Amino acid sequence: MDSSSDHSPPSSLHSPGDVQNVKFCQWCGGPTKHEIPEGEERLRAICTSCGKITYQNPKMVVGCLIEHDNKVLLCKRKIEPSYGLWTLPAGYLEIGESAMEGAIRETREEANADVEVISPFAQLDIPLIGQTYIIFLARLKKPHFSPGPESSECLLFSLNEIPFSSLSFSSMVVTLSLYVEDMKAGGKPKFHYGTINKRPGTSASDIHAYTLDHHMQS
Ligand SMILES: [Zn+2]
C-alpha cells in the first residue's frame, strides 16, 4: 500500500454520483437542469418545476470485524455485486441508526450473529464512488452464526487463512490487511483512517489496484 500518493479520479469517469444521472427532482419529480447555482462551485441538478436542488452526498457503509477464538468471521456473498466473494458483514447505514447500530444490524442480517461492539477499527473513505466505510471490532455474544439471506456461507478464518484473493471489495482488502498487520505487530488492533483511491489506468473491477492514502492510526 502506498501512503504518499494522492490520485484524483479521471474527470471523464461517470461515477455513481454523477450529477448528470439525476434527471428528476427528489422533491416533486419534475425534470431537472444541470447548472452551477449562484454562490456554489459544483454542477447541481436543479428542478425546472419547483427550483429545489437535489444534492448528492456520500453514503456510509457500516460493518463488523468479528473476532472469535483468534479468527475473524467472513460471509460469502449470495448477491451481486461480487457474488461468491467474501466480505465482512456490512451494508448501508439507514436513517435513524447510529453507525454502531447499523453495523450490529448488518451482522444480524448477513450472519445471524448477535454481536457486541468492542471499538471502532477503521474509517475508510472512497471518494471516487462516494462511500465511507466505518468498521467496528466486535465479538459474538453467543458462539452462533449462520448465513442470512444475502450470504451463502459464514465461516471463521484464522489470520493465515483469510482469502485475500477472493474478497469482495477493496475496502475489505484494506480492512483485513490492516487488521492482520496490527495482530502480527503485537496483537492489539489500532484505529485506522485512510482514503482508498484507484491507481490510475487500472480496471474498476480490480479490487487490489488501489492505494491507501492519508493513512493515520492511533
Ligand atoms: Zn422539484
UniProtKB/TrEMBL annotation:
Provide any one GO MF term from the record: FAD diphosphatase activity
Pfam families given in the database record: NUDIX, Zn_ribbon_Nudix
Per UniProt, the keywords (alphabetical) are: Hydrolase
Does Hydrolase count among this protein's keywords?
yes
| Family annotation (InterPro entries) | NUDIX_hydrolase-like_dom_sf, NUDIX_hydrolase_CS, NUDIX_hydrolase_dom, Nudix_N
Q: Which SUPFAM superfamilies match?
A: Nudix
ATP-binding is among the record's keywords: no
What name is this protein filed under? Nudix hydrolase 23, chloroplastic
The organism named in the record is: Glycine soja
